[in-house]
Task: structure prediction
Amino acid sequence: MMVVPILFLVHLIGDFFLQPATWVSDKEKNKLNSPFIYLQVEIHGALTFGILILFQFKLIEAFWISLSILITHFLIDSSKLIFQGTNKKSRKIWFFVDQFMHLMVITALWICIEGSLLDLQQLFSYNIFIAFICILFLTNPASILIDIILSSWEGNIKTDKKEELNNAGKYIGILERIFIFGFIVVNYWEGIGFLLAAKSVFRFGDLNRSKDRNLTEYILIGTLISFGLAMLVGIIYTSFH
Result:
C-alpha cells in the first residue's frame, strides 16, 4: 500500500530533518513545558496532510490520517520525555521504544485503510520511491542511530576537537553508506571491499599515531555498524525489488 512508504517518509523528514538538535535539547530539559514538542507534532500533522494530498488521497482520508499521526505522535513523544529521564542509557532505550511505537502507528493505520486506497500502477515508480526512502534513512536517521548506539563508549574516548573538521565524520559516514547501498543495488559487492580497504588505509595513520586502543575499538565498532546497516538496507531493498 502506498500509505506505508508515505507515512514512513513523513516520519523520517519530521523526526530527523525538520527537528534541530536545539529542539531536542529543549524538550529533554523542559519536557511538556517546551513549545517545540507542540511545534513538532504540528509539523508532522501538516506534512502528512500535504503529502497525502499531493499523492491524490481524498480530503477526508488525508485529514483523519493526519490527525491520527498528530495525536499519536504527541502521546508517544510526551511519554518518552516523561519516562526517559536524564540517564544516557535510559535515553538510548527510550529512543528505540519511541521509534518502534511510531512504526506501530503506521502499521495500524495501514491495517485500518487496507483496500480503501489504490496501489501504484507503475512498479518502476514504486521502486524509485522506495530507493529514495532507503537512501534518506541512510543519511541523518542512520547517523543518529549509530551515535546513540555508540554513546555508551563516548566517555572513554579522548580526541582533539580542534584538529577535526566540523561534522566531517558524520558526512563521511553518510557518503559511505550511500555508496554501499548503490554497490549492492547494482550487484557490485567488490566495491564494498574497496571502500573498506580505502577507509582502513586512511585511518591507519591516525590510529597508529594516537596509540589509543579505546579510540581504535570505537572507530572499528562505528565503521562495522555503519557498513552493516547500509548492507542490511541494500539487501532488504534488492530482496523486494
The two ends are 15 Å apart (CA to CA). The CA atoms of residues 28 and 86 lie 8 Å apart. The chain is about 80% helix and 0% strand.
